[in-house]
Specification:
Elements: H1 2-35, H2 40-48, H3 56-86, H4 88-94, H5 98-123, H6 126-131, H7 135-143, E1 153-154, E2 159-165, H8 175-178, H9 184-192, E3 197-199, H10 208-217, H11 238-244, E4 248-253, H12 262-268, E5 273-275, H13 277-284, H14 300-314, E6 321-326, H15 349-368, E7 376-382, H16 392-396, E8 405-408, E9 418-421, H17 426-433, E10 436-437, E11 442-443, E12 446-447, H18 456-459, H19 461-466, H20 478-486, E13 490-492, E14 495-497
Parallel strand pairs: 2-6, 2-7, 3-9, 4-5, 4-6
Antiparallel strand pairs: 1-10, 7-8, 11-12, 13-14
């Protein structure tokens, strides 16, 4: 009896260890197949935050892949031994050594587990992330600029409309890669208006919430910092600065704001009126065949129509406004092609990009036709580079990939449009584009591209690329604030800052 219990326990332990190993392999396969290269910040954030509001099909695929990986792994490692045991000749020989066989399998499973954890640690730089000094904190000490919010004045107060274009990058203009410019409408807008070249995607800006956050906070998004009042000055972000200067702030998206706490994060940054899939259905009725896009929620056509209605109403008020729009049709996987307004040509993801170009261009033209357009600045920006998708090998092979950015009707023009910058620099540039006068033309780690001073990327390219993902966040510790206070000045380029 004791021997049987021991055998069952050994067998269960082996199954459990192999399940962990094969489960990790399945999860990694899911991540790399559907999203390509991902960072530890991205994995941790989506793991630790609510999955409510996510794409159920995508979540189901992930669970199915993990379970399949475990079952296949069990079959590969245990079927031969079960066959041998079922054969009377071999069963008799191995009967006395069965526990030893289980012990060998457990030892091998443990070896695979250690090897897997070591590889995951290497692949995601977990050691430097957990134990290293925070690269962000060091950059803040060396280059942070922290004006008091009262010192930020506005010479003019233009309205600001920001369209966060899901996964839209300038690679889709490349005729050599795709045989045509997939975004001719945006090309015309770019030629007629302002666009900066030289944007680089860095850690803390490479997924939707991170790209949106960093474009408004002028800091890279950090799982260990977000939500802990650990920022140098929680009032130094675009929406709060605008509210303080008499703006109303709005944000609309066709997916659920519950996913990854998007609603909570944006409202915490000063967005007064946040509308998402759930709240829009209360006001405009439940999703139907006309308004539904992908499994995420509203299609972009319906979202832009709702945005037009809301903007027409908001523009009648006396206060200037900030209005953010997050598109979703181009979100991979399970992207959406709107056959109601677009014609298929390539019968793949390229048609979805072209359809997005058509819709965004039409929306911009609608805004420009409104009586309040002369006092309105429009920013069209991709939220991040496109992740892995059906034609991603064509974009991955391009040497110079950067996120699309187009500025329509800015209050001031830059000294130079050929820069080296990140999404972090978008925040101060937004403010100066609508008439703000920033002390030193910068705040937090962002430097306005409207000014000629160098960005942190132009000064510290190696650190910006290699150190942003290193180390836990120490920004809420007394030691960090003490070090910051000891700095007589905070510099960005040759500028001096106060704190």
């Amino acid at each position: 009896m004791k021997r049987k219990i021991s055998t069952k326990l050994l067998r269960a332990t082996g199954y459990f260890l192999y399940a962990i190993v094969f489960g990790i392999w399945g999860a990694l396969g899911f991540l790399f197949y559907f999203f390509g290269s991902v960072s530890v910040e991205q994995v941790l954030f989506h793991t630790l935050n609510p999955v409510s509001g996510t794409n159920p099909l995508l979540l189901g695929r992930g669970i199915a892949i993990v379970i399949t990986s475990i079952v296949v792994g069990w079959a590969v490692f245990y079927t031969p031994s079960c066959f041998v045991r079922a054969t009377s000749k071999w069963n008799k020989i191995l009967e006395e050594k069965w526990e030893d066989q289980h012990f060998f399998q457990i030892s091998f499973a443990f070896f695979l587990l250690v090897l897997t954890i070591a590889w995951v640690g290497y692949r995601f730089s977990l050691y430097s992330y957990i134990f290293g000094e925070s690269g962000v904190d060091e950059l803040i000490i060396d280059h942070g600029v922290f004006p008091h919010e009262n010192d930020i004045k506005f010479d003019k107060r233009n309205n600001l409309i920001v369209v966060y274009m899901e996964s839209i990058e300038n690679s889709y203009h490349n005729v050599d890669a795709f045989g045509e410019d997939l975004m001719p409408g945006l090309s015309k807008l770019k030629d007629a208006n302002l666009s900066f070249t030289g944007q680089m995607q860095v850690r803390g800006t490479e997924f939707t919430v991170a790209g949106t956050f960093s474009s408004l906070y002028a800091l890279p998004f950090s799982v260990s910092c977000e939500g802990k009042s650990a920022l140098v000055n929680t009032n130094l972000c675009v929406p709060k600065i605008l509210v303080r200067n008499g703006y109303s702030t709005h944000f609309i998206m066709g997916s659920s704001g519950a996913f990854t706490d998007t609603r909570k994060i944006l409202e915490g940054m000063g967005v007064q009126d946040f509308q998402d899939r759930e709240s829009l259905q209360v006001e405009y009725g439940k999703l139907n065949e006309e308004t539904r896009g992908s499994i995420w929620g509203y299609n972009d056509r319906s979202l832009f129509e709702i945005a037009k209605k809301r903007l027409s109403s908001i523009a009648e008020e006396d206060a200037p406004f900030f209005f953010g729009i997050a598109t979703i049709d181009t979100h991979q996987p399970d992207e959406f092609f709107d056959k109601a307004i677009c014609v298929e040509k390539h019968h793949n993801f390229l048609d979805i990009i072209s359809c997005a170009d058509y819709q965004i261009t039409n929306f911009v033209n609608w805004v420009l036709a409104q009586p309040w357009a002369k006092n309105t600045t429009i920013l069209l920006m991709g939220d991040h580079l496109a992740p892995k998708h059906y034609v991603s090998e064509k974009t991955y092979d391009l040497r110079h990939r950067s996120i699309e950015n187009i500025w329509v009707n800015p209050v001031r023009m830059p000294v130079n449009t050929q820069r080296s910058f990140t999404t972090i620099d978008i925040a101060p540039t937004m403010l100066e584009a609508i008439g703000a006068n920033l002390p030193q033309h910068a705040f937090n780690l962002g430097v306005s591209l409207m000014d000629g001073h160098p960005t942190v990327l132009e000064l510290e390219k190696e650190r910006m690329i290699n150190k942003l993902g290193a180390g836990a966040c120490d920004r809420n510790t007394p030691s960090f604030r003490e070090r910051l206070a000891q700095k007589p000045t905070q510099k960005t380029g040759n500028k001096k800052g106060s704190h």
